[in-house]
Amino acid sequence: QNGFFGVIERYRDRMPMEGIDTIVTLGEGSTPLVPAPVLGQVLDAEVYVKVEGANPTGSFKDRGMTMAMSKALADGSKAVVCASTGNTSASASAYASRAHMMPVVLLPQGKIAAGKLAQAVVHGGRIIQVQGNFDDCLTIARDLAANFPVSLVNSVNPYRIEGQKTASFEIVDCLGDAPDIHALPVGNAGNITAYWKGYQEYAADGPATHTPRMFGFQAAGAAPLVLGHDVENPETVATAIRIGKPASGSKALAARDDSNGLISSVTDEQILDAQAFLAAKEGIFVEPASAAGVAGLLALKQSGDLPAGQRIVITVTGNGLKDIDTALSRTELSTEAVEPSTDRVAALLGLHR
Ligand code: F0G
After folding, report:
1. Which listed residue, 2, 23, 93, 111, has the most CB atoms within 10 A of its CB?
2. Which of ligand 1's atoms lies nearest the C-alpha of 216?
3. Whose CA is nearest to atom 19 of ligand 1?
4. Which residues face 299 on adjacent strands?
């Protein structure tokens, strides 16, 4: 498969293609579903990790962006706008360059991981740092799109959801059926909505015999769906999911209830521990927010609330390289300096000739 074979081509018959002639793609999707045996042993389960950091811009957003951008191009848009905690802006900027459109990105000032900001910068996005949080940015982005000739490419755009649902298709195509449980982080709640839509479609007409229980996890300082009310000042180390008023919140709650699932919260410490565990034990480096699903399952296991023997898929949503500042700030991680001498290096390692 070449790099221009993305999720639209792979699942074209399940996409709303009316009016779309030109596909804007960077070869997104078909990401690895990696067995996680160490985590499986801890959780007493058969565990797979869907590594969405392997997408072209390093997060799951690319699946939805190929659809949203193809639709915007078909509509004759010259500019697209999004609010973002970082990954959407990186993806929108890349796909907009590809489509020769101007990306306008609204970011919560000072709360974006450096790698993501760099992506928007190099792709030529018009970057506006708003002195507020993501929820403020989204309000402005929606207002701009409603009143000016720019297309909104946040996940409230239904084409984003259509593209992102392909992750469920890939999982079922790979495993031969849906898992028992699907766990993932929840921020603005578009992705859990998309996964649930994909699983339902596949269960309705063939490839899957059932749908999984959807387990969503928010950061404790930004957990409106767990608390049952908006959070005015969300705060978490997992900046990607630092969101207090999820736009698709009601759809996430429906996915939870219709799937007999749950939406729970995890602390920043649990998130960072899970990130470190995945990196050290399974060889998978994800950004903090992306570890929320792993953190949540570990917490459920610890409290005795995770049934044994389940087949579980966990989506890790973004690449660890996006936020190296957080990773390097962990005190237990360190490097050692030494003179350029084999003997010195060997001595450091406790090796003797
Ligand atoms: N994980 C990562 C790495 C994310 O970037 C996001 C959302 C989520 C999880 C949550 O997904 O919002 O669909 O529930 N990032 C958005 C952004 C908000 O602007 O990049 P969700």
Report:
1. 93
2. 14
3. 84
4. none
Ligand 1 in reach of 248 Cβ (< 6 A): no
pLDDT in tens, 110-165: 999 999 999 999 999 899 999 999 999 999 999 999 999 999 999 999 999 999 99
Beta bridge partners of 263: 216
User: Model pTM greater than 0.90?
Assistant: yes
Residue 341 burial (C-beta neighbours within 10 Å; 0-12, 13-18, 19+): exposed
- Given a contact cutoff of 8 angstroms between Cβ atoms, the answer to whether 25 and 73 are in contact is no
Q: Can you read off the two tokens belonging to residue 8?
A: 């639209």
Q: What value does the mean pLDDT of the chain take?
A: 96
pLDDT tens track for 337-349 = 899 999 999 999 9
Res 1 pLDDT > 50 = no
Q: Which one has a higher pLDDT value, 105 or 333?
A: 105
Q: For CA atoms 169, 172, 174, 179, give the dihedral sign.
A: positive
Query: Token digits for 187?
Result: 């921020």
Average pLDDT over residues 58-62: 98
Our answer on whether the CB atom of 240 is closer than 6 Å to any ligand 1 atom is yes
Nearest 10 degrees: CA dihedral of 32, 33, 34, 37?
Answer: 180
- Note the helical H segments in the chain: 7-10, 37-43, 61-74, 87-98, 114-122, 134-147, 158-164, 166-175, 190-204, 224-227, 249-258, 268-277, 292-302, 324-328, 342-348
Q: How far apart are the first and last CA of the chain?
A: 49
| 3-class SS of residue 230 | coil
**198: its two tokens:** 């994909």
Burial status of residue 214 (CB atoms within 10 A of its CB: 0-12, 13-18, 19 or more): buried
